[in-house]
Design goal:
- It is a single chain.
- This protein is of the alpha/beta class.
- The protein has 21 helices and 21 strands.
- Among the domains are: 88 residues, LCCL-like domain (Ferric Hydroxamate Uptake Protein, Chain A, domain 1), CATH 2.170.130; 191 residues, Rossmann fold, CATH 3.40.50.410; 181 residues, von Willebrand factor, type A domain (Rossmann fold, 3-Layer(aba) Sandwich), CATH 3.40.50.
- The protein has a 6-stranded mixed β-sheet with strand order 12-11-10-13-14-15, sandwiched between helices.
- Its main location: secreted.
Length: 696
Amino acid sequence: MKATVVATFFGVFLTCTYTAKEATKKAKKAKLYVPQIDCDVKAGKIINPEFIAKCPPGCQDVKYRVYGTDIYASFSSVCNAAIHSGIIDNTGGKVLVQKVAGHSGYRGSFSNGVRSLSLPRWRESFLVSEGKPRKGVTYPSTLEYSSSKSTAVKSEPKKTEQDPKDMKSADTANTSGKASDEGDAVHKEYQTTPVLTPTTQMATTTPTPTTTTTDPSTTVPQPTTTAAATRTTAAPAKARPGLHRVRDMAYASVVAAAARQVQAAQGRGQNTAFWGTSTSAINRNILRHNTGAQRQEPIATFQRAANCKVDLSFLMDGSWSIGKRRFQLQKRFLGNVAQALGISSAGPLMGIVQYGDDPSTEFNLKTYVNSKDLRNAIEKIQQKGGLSNVGKALSFVNKNFFLDANGNRGGAPNVVVVLVDGWPTDRVEEASRLARESGINIFFVTVAAAAQSEKQNVIEPNFVDKAVCRTSGFYSINVPSWFSLHKVVQPLVKRVCDTDRLACSKTCLNAADIGFVIDGSSSVGTGNFRTVLQFVANISKEFEISDTDTRIGAVQYTYEQRLEFSFDKYSTKQDVLNAIKRISYWSGGTSTGAAISYASEQLFSKSKPNKRKIMILITDGRSYDDVSVPAMAAHQNGVIAYSVGVAWAAPDELEAIASDPAKEHSFFVDEFDNLYRYVNQLIQNICTEFNSQPRN
C-alpha cells in the first residue's frame, strides 16, 4: 500500500512539473509586447539603454524638437527623430532605440519633412533603427522613466533569456544554499523605488526586462530550515508576477496533492515520516524567506563601485524621533555604503554631517581615505538628539562642507545624500535650491514616510519633490522600513557614481533668466503685436521653466515702460505661456534706450546668482532716445543681449543693443509674419554660446 501511495505522489509531481515546463515554453515563444510612447517623449527621459517602442500617428510636428542627424541628442523626441531618419512616417510605427555616448556636435538637417536642429554638444545620444529585435537581446515590455513613480513589470508575454532549468523544482535552487534577493536589488535599482521588506522577499530570482542573471558576489547565504520551524514563522507569500506564477501554481498543486496523500495515509494508520520529508523539500525554498535570518546582511556581499570619483557628504538623522535602534541601523547602512563605494584618494571620498537641532561635521572628506577606517569611525558616532532640521543642515553643508580645506577636490562632483526618518521639522525648499545653484547634487533617502493621520504635522508637504532636481525619480528613494535600508545600498551607490546622469548640472535650457523687452509702440499695431507675443511664447516653451530652472520675465515699452511680469512671478511653463497671452497692447512712442535701462533695474538686477541673464528685445523702428549707453551698461552688468528688428528697425541700433559678436546676437526680418523663422536660430545661438563658456 505504501508503494502505491509513493507512486501516486511522484505521478502527481511529474505531471505538474511537466505542465509548468510546457506553460513556460509557450510563454517564452509568445510575441514580444511593445510598449507605446507619446510623441513628446525624449530618449533621455527613458532609463532603458536599449528598447523597442511604438510611436503613435501625428508626431511629425515642429513642437517635437529633434537635434542632430543620424545620431541624435538625448533630449530629442524619439518619434520625430525616427521620422527624420526615415524609419517610420507620420502614421507611426515601431522603433528600436539604442543609447550611445554624448557627442561634441550635432548637425541639423531637413529630412523626410522634419527640420532637425544643430547643437554643439550633449552628454548622451541615441540611434534609431527599424523596430525589430536584435538577436540575443532582451527587450523590456515596460519602459522605465526617470520620474518619482515606480515602474511595475507588466505581465504581458515577453522574450526572456531565462534558463528553462530555472522552472524546475525549488529543490534545485536550494542546493546552492544562496538566495538572489541582494542580486536583484543590484540589477533593479531603476525599476522600482519602493523596496520589499525581508518578510516579503522570495528566494527565487525574478527576471527583469534588462537582466536575466544574478551576480554571485551579491547573494546572501541562507541557513537551512526544517519544515517544522518554517511552519511556525511563515507568513502568506506575496504573489509573484510573470512566469513565476506558472511555477508557483505547479508547486502549489504538488504540495496540495502531497498533503492529501499524507492525510489519507494517516487515516489508515501508516508511517508518514517519508511524506514529511518530501513536503519539507518541496516547500523549503517557498517558505524559508519568512525566517528572521535574512536581516543579517553581511557587509562583504556589496559589490564595489568601479570608476567612481565623487566628493560625497551624508546628512545622517540624529534626531530623537529615530530612536537608538534605528540609529544603529542607519550607521550600519552608512558602513555598507562606504564598503560598496570603495573609498580612496583617487576615487570616491565621503564625509558625514549629523543633524538634529543643529548640524555638526562628524568628519570631512579628507579625514579617511579607505573604507575600513571610515566604517570604524562610523561605528563610533554618537546620536545627537533634537529635532529634524534638514533645511538648516543643507544650508550648513552648502556654506561649510565642500571647501578646499575640507578635502574638496574641485574636479569631482559634489553630492549630498540626506537621510530622513519620517519628515523634516523645518523647511527644505529654499536651502535645497541654494545648494543646487552652488553645483551640489542632492539625493534624499526617506524612511517610513508620514501616515495619513500624521500628514497634518508635516511642515512642508511634498518636501522631497521641492528639494531635489527636476528628475526626482533619480534623486529620491523611499524605503518603507529601516530594516529594508540595506536593500538600497547598491542602487544608491550606482546613482551617486553615475556622473553622466547627475542632471542637476546646468544646460542651455535650464540655467537662464530670460527677459523679453517688447516694443508696444503705435507703429506695431494690434495684429502684429499678437504675432510678436506668439514669437515670445514659441521661444519660451523650448526652455525648462521652473523656479530652479529657467525663469521668464517681460517688459513692454512705448515712451514709458511697464513690467508685465517678473522672473519670480510664474514657476511653470503653462503659467508663463498664459501670462504672455494676457499681455495687452499699449500703443505710443518708441523709447528703446529707456526700456533697456528699465529692464536692467526691474528685471535683471533681481536675477539669481549662477543664472545667465539673457535679454531679448523686439522692436519695429528707430528709437527716440540713445540706445548705446544703456545697452553698454547692461552688458557690463552681465546681461547677454539679443536684438530682433522688424520692418523699419535701424540696423545700427540693433547692433549697438546686441552683445558681441553682434552678427550672432542681432536679427532682422522684413515682416512680422516672418519672425517664426528665427525661433530655432535664436535658441541655437543661446545654446552655442552657453556651451562655449566656462561654468561650474
